[in-house]
Amino acid sequence: MKRIDTEKIGSLKQLLKNNRKISIIPHINPDGDAIGSSLALAQYLTKLNKSVKVIVPNDYPDYLHWIPGQEKVVVFFKQKYTAEELLRNADLIFYVDFNDEHRCGEIAKITSQLSVPKVLIDHHPNPGDFASVVISDTSACATAELVYEVIDALGDNELIDLPIAESLFAAILTDTGSFSYNSSQPRTFEIVGDLLKRGIDKDRIYSDTFDKYSGNRMKLLGYALSEKMVHLPEYRTAFISLTKEELERYHFVPGDTEGFVNNPLAINDVVFTALFMEKDGRIKISFRSKGKFATNLFSGHHFNGGGHANASGGESHLTMEETLKKFEALLPDYKEELLGSM
Ligand SMILES: [Mn+2]
After folding, report:
1. What is the Cα–Cα distance from 311 to 296, expressed in whole angstroms?
2. CA 51 – ligand 1 centroid, Å
């Protein structure tokens, strides 16, 4: 498989030969791919006798806590001193699942000053030049797919044991919405097929990952869909907004609104969805689309964000009311694109 440049694998081999203390850094608000990819990589590198830690910028939702290798995680936000110490002592750094150094939050302030070699493994478009070795491929359904390819290209396929396979599968499962998007390449299924051969229990992983909701979360979802969803068939768009007060009413904990933005995409005529949430004094926005509509461009132009074409994020420093007004006012400009999207 020639997916990964031979020269880059050569450089990586050299780096792994010469360095032992490794820090792996996923993006802020890590998702299944960020955590699964980082832990798979950490477990693999541990097998190469490296001393490895995963420095996670902030906490991540409970449904990712079953993924093997959690003992390697240090949460920067909670253990700043330990994390900074590890970063300063590292002789090799891996960045995982992001394309811009700022996506790892405050950690970037430390790592940008370190002169150690840095390796980026990612599948987002337009990777920045903050790493010495950049392994980036937007055709990968998840960064985990590239982690698999890297291990394979390094000649270590047989080191992929059950825990590593489980971590990789969790990442692929979550980043493709259980194979509902971003997963039309045969290679994804070849890799998944190989992971199944290592003995992963696909159904248990599905249930450990997705059937983990609290009662409050379900009630919040019900409220969001019945009371707060605005459906605009003329623009094939639907969006949900949740204020701080509403989130508190349902005892919101981080991760509770994960996936909410996908629900309205199941409406037959909807191709574009958005979720607006009041958080930390700003409005945090998620966008999703079906078909050709590029949410990352929309978000980049109007909401200071980016990501993938079909899944991206953004933010607004206006009030919720003003933000929603701005969003709705933009839709007429995109009407043709939205109607022609599928
Ligand atoms: Mn990803």
Report:
1. 7
2. 25
d(CA 104, ligand 1 centre) in Å: 14
Ligand 1 centroid distance, CA of 284 (Å): 19
Domain boundary among 188, 210, 232: 210
CA of 172 to the centre of ligand 1 (A): 8
Domain boundary among 177, 210, 243: 210
Q: How many domains does the chain fold into?
A: 2
Task: Indicate whether 1 pLDDT > 50.
Answer: no
What strands, in cross-sheet order, belong to the sheet with 237-242? 229-232, 237-242, 272-279, 282-289, 311-316, 306-307
- Quickly tell me which residue has 């000649």 as its tokens: 155
Question: What is the band of 139 on the pLDDT scale with cuts at 50, 70, 90?
Answer: very high
Find the 167 Cα to ligand 1 centroid distance in Å.
13
pLDDT digits (tens, 9 = 90+) for 198-250: 999 999 999 999 888 899 999 999 999 999 999 999 999 999 999 999 999 99
Enclosing domain of residue 229? 215-339
